[in-house]
Amino acid sequence: MYPRALSRLSSSSGLAYAASGQIVAAASALVSVRVYTGLLEKDEFGLAMVAMGAVAFLDGIVTMAFNQTLLSLCAQAKDGAAQRRI
């Protein structure tokens, strides 16, 4: 499954699909910052940005730990299956 996903991304349509998602995410981030600056005072805006940064930081840490644990467990299971066949 993994090589097929890479082959899809290497094609021009797959790359355009991936890039379009990144462009939409960047544009929505810019729009959201503009909305926040229009609605909030400077102090409230700063607090909101610190809170969002903290949430993004914690999300990254939790996701990274989950992905590493999942990868470790999957690698052990795949390794064990390969050794049973030998």
Short overview:
By secondary structure, the chain is an all-alpha fold. It has helices spanning 2-10, 12-39, 42-85.
Give your account of this protein's structure.
- The protein is mainly alpha-helical and 86 residues long.
- The mean pLDDT is 79.
- It is elongated, with a radius of gyration of 20 Å.
- The longest helix has 44 residues, at 42-85.
- The chain has three helices and no strands.
Mean pLDDT: 79
> How many helices does DSSP assign?
3
Rough outline: elongated
* Residue fraction in strands: under 5%
SSE string, helices as H and strands as E: HHH
Structural class: mainly alpha
* Portion in helices: over 70%
Sheet with the most strands, sense and barrel status: none
Uncertain segments of ≥5 residues (pLDDT<50)?
none
What is the CA-atom radius of gyration, in angstroms? 20 Å
Please report the distance between the alpha carbons of the first and last residues: 23 Å
Report the count of strand segments.
Answer: 0
Describe this protein with a few key phrases.
mainly alpha; 3 helices; 86 residues; elongated
Reconstruct the topology from this structure.
Elements (H helix, E strand, L loop, with lengths): L1 H9 L1 H28 L2 H44 L1
